[in-house]
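Issue 218. Parser rejects a valid record. Input:
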Amino acid sequence: MLKIAFLTDHHVSLHTKNPFGIDTENRFLQLLEVIQQKKYDGIILGGDLCYLEGDAETYDWYLNHLASLDIPFNIISGNHDNSELLVKTFKDYSVNEDKELFYTKTWHDVPMIFLDTAKGFMGEKQYIWLENQIRQQDAKNIFIFMHHPPIPCGSKLMDSRYAFLQSEKFVSLCQRFPDMVFNIFAGHYHIERTVFHKNIICHITPSSYVNIDPEKEEFTLHPCQDNSYRELIWEGPDFSTNIVCIP
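Output the parser choked on:
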């Protein structure tokens, strides 16, 4: 069995204390404490590590806390991150000539693809690389981690103002492989939702910072502000996922 914890949108603020009255540092550390107790095989951080923009001091803060856990971890960039700055702290990673951070990793025989949508879109070289990676897969289920959901997900604010800019292009790529199911794990929308579109299943994970009301066209806090993360479990050929809330 393989158990992974997917965390996203922490917006840790070392310089602006308690935005919206929330201790962003403590909320993230609460997640790490629970994850350590539950003995996950790995952690994936889904982007927007920083509050407003990528910050070297904040990335150093993350590295210090993650390194103390003795649990392997992977990171992707969000629109409030700077991929080039991030890899200066997390030296196992590198960016390409377009300053994008994307790579693959296999956990317990489960291949995973990690994409960079920090700019709100993906460069052409990343698309070419992604298609090559898909062609090398021999499984029906493809597991992809990216910050932005690649399809509209029913949030009036996010779909209209902050959506992924290449939805049609991404869907078209997936449609070239009609026998495959693309399991996408994303954040960015600050809600919990699962959306089905053609051969894409998009699992959106809520933020540990704030979550927003998907029914509102303006930024409005959601009534539920639980600190939470997504659990991913592979047991042989079976896969399941759910949200874990921190009391």
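Fixed in the parser; the record now loads. The radius of gyration is 17 Å.
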